[in-house]
Amino acid sequence: MSSDQIDVPALPILLPLGLVLMVASWVVLRRRDRLTARRLGAAWLAGWYAVAVLGATLLPMHLAWGDRGGEPDLYRIILIPLTTMRVDDFLLNIVMTLPLAALLYVVFSVREKSRVILIGFVLSAAIELTQAVIDLAFHGTRWADVNDLISNTLGVLLGYLVFHRAMRFEPFRQVLESCRLTGSESRSQKAVR
To answer: Is the pTM value of this prediction over 0.70?
Structure first.
């Protein structure tokens, strides 16, 4: 391999990142006096979800620059929706973002439909823009696809609708409330402190 190209592997980055997030979440919950098994489990689940999304969207990565890279593969950047959509990828992107609404609620107390969808859209746009920049600047091998942006946002919306419906069931809501990392105490509990 030449010095003007590099292959960035997935596992040597993703596994340590996941472990660091596990330790960091334990430390943060302990320092905030909020450490319970359910909250720790929720934090670990959220961390590994983030690691999985990172791995699915950016890693492994092939980078090249200088004369070795040649011209960027512009065909890897798809700006017209639905014309070149790969149905399998579209469905997988929907499934990938289904849990986001529940995780946003548990980790950051984000409840509003518009905020959940906006966050999902912005995260997806950031991923697609990162892929496009890597393709253009470093001759990456990922696809920056407007269809991914659409399917990811649709997955967030569907996940929100399922999550919102599930929150109507008291046992589910109670378990989820006990897992929330922020804002799970009622006002009466805070007043007692």
So the answer is: yes
